[in-house]
Protein 1
Amino acid sequence: MHRFPLLALVLFAAPAFAQDALDFSSDAPRVLHTVVTEVKGPDGTPAMYRYTTTYDPARGEYVRTVEDEASGATVKREVLPSIMRGPTPEEAEAAQQLIKADVELSALIGAAEYPVEVVGGFPLVREADAGFCGPGTRCMQFDILEMVPDQRAARRIRFVVVDMRRGEVVARDLDPELQGNLANPAIRTDSRARGLAFPSDSQ
């Protein structure tokens, strides 16, 4: 099995505190990030603008809106391409629960000799014909790791993917080299240009 330094894993562990449960049956947009910052307004004077990035599960769209904090007026709204933004605390907690409730994965977790942790949350975007995690989805990659005592490394049980668009485990044994973000054609082309081998080229 693969081994990973424990120190690096701590940075990506999902938050342990309680979160409001996500309602995957709802088509309401989810706020992924929001920030208020001072900018130069249309008249040249300082203004406070709120920048908000949301994910719309009904349309499979990421949207960024800019609002005037004082008046509430929308200054700009734009649909973004699929973006590499990690899970919100609510999404991370929901993914943990989905993985632990999955029949196949829960059996593997239960059979482990040592305590198990689910860590990660790395975004995954693949091409439209890849079968899963294409444009419009909101996929996250997670490691299921067995924490071996008295060792600086953990053993990987499985590398899995959860699509947070509808709350589904879509890959229970992902091969990150053949099925990860490198499967994206743009990244593959860039890798070839830099002389890097791409595993699926020979298939």
Protein 2
Amino acid sequence: MSAARIVAAHATPEFVALTSVRVGSARFRVGPWQGQHDVAYLAPVTAASTLAPPVLASLRDRLLHQGFSSVITAAVAPLVRDRLINDGFSVRAELTALSRDVEASGRLAHPGGRTRRARRRDLDGVLRVDAGAFPPFWRLDAEGLHEARTATPSSRWRVIRSPEVTAYSITGRAGPMGYLQRLAVATHSQGRGMGTLLVLDALNWLQRRGAQTALVNTPPDNERALALYQRCGFSVEPDRLAVLHRDLV
């Protein structure tokens, strides 16, 4: 992600919101992937049982008609993954899923420092941190950040500044489930407890909001992130999530 693109995203207040698409009893959220208007981002919303072959065929026709030439999915669970693979999708990447009981006993050592609510003027700094912390495939642009913040009925967006933005997190809640949607620390600030501080902030917020379980995922080769979450009481789930890809033409 170039600096010029970050500035342009900040200067334009409009976001490309995902569109809700219904095909039969299945529902999806669809939009451009990372600003590429020929690549669709596809997030299935309903259960795997709704993803029958005729439904997926109709969805592909609709996406092709809208000008998309390929599709990349959100991270999906094994049942959805298998339905999509049977439709011709292939696994593009996998993610390790971790979970934690929000009410679990045992207090974590506070690393010190404070977070604060992110503001619109933090957007450029947040995107710079994100671009430095993740390889290109996993980076968020302004639209992706907006989607992460609005994917759940309630969310919390926090930053750490010193004085520029050096770390940020997005946490969401939907009923009893909590999600650490995004967490990134600038490379020059890693190892200083900022990741732990943001995870603690997320867990405390989820507890106050009545969530029972917290979920997070990360690429399996991101050893630093895996170690952070496990130190904070998360356990690795047996099944990985998958991001899939399919050409439409």
Protein 3
Amino acid sequence: MAETRTPDSTRRSERSRRAIYDAALSLVGEAGYGRTTIEGIAARAGVGKQTIYRWWPSKAEVLLEAFLERGGQAAESDPALPDTGDLEADLKQVLRATVDELTDPGFEIPYRALAAEGVINADLGAQFVRKLLEPGLQLYVDRLRAARDAGAIDPDVDPRVAVELLVGPLAHRWLLRTLPLTHAYADSLVEYALRGIAPR
């Protein structure tokens, strides 16, 4: 008699979790954050809504973990900023990629919704910064620290402050939609920032 195998509940749970992530991101992109519901996410993912409530208390938490999952996959494939020896070129490459990501509707709409919810919900906002933003910012810090050690920037520069010269204006323009987000703008941020932190 053939042996009957017990279904792997861990694998099934992982499939369900990924389906929920995909459903949440796509629904927010299609319908907007306000019209996205746990029920809608469950229906799109093909799971019961109680499955979602068992793992997350709100749709905002689902979105946060969906982005963390995406960020984790990116980190596995490319865990550090490029270091070709040309700091300006490396930073321009990364900031241009950031512009592409922030202007991709599939990413921008749910990410903007999550950022806005984090302003209202202090606990979610703290998680957003700690889990999603800070790991990426730390990659910039590491690259700038290496540049400082190599003498490419002023030895008195605080890398964490220097990072904000790069990404702060980019985030401001994106969040408030003051002007278009372009590669040319990203390049100018790198050029201006490097002038300010160049060796004296």
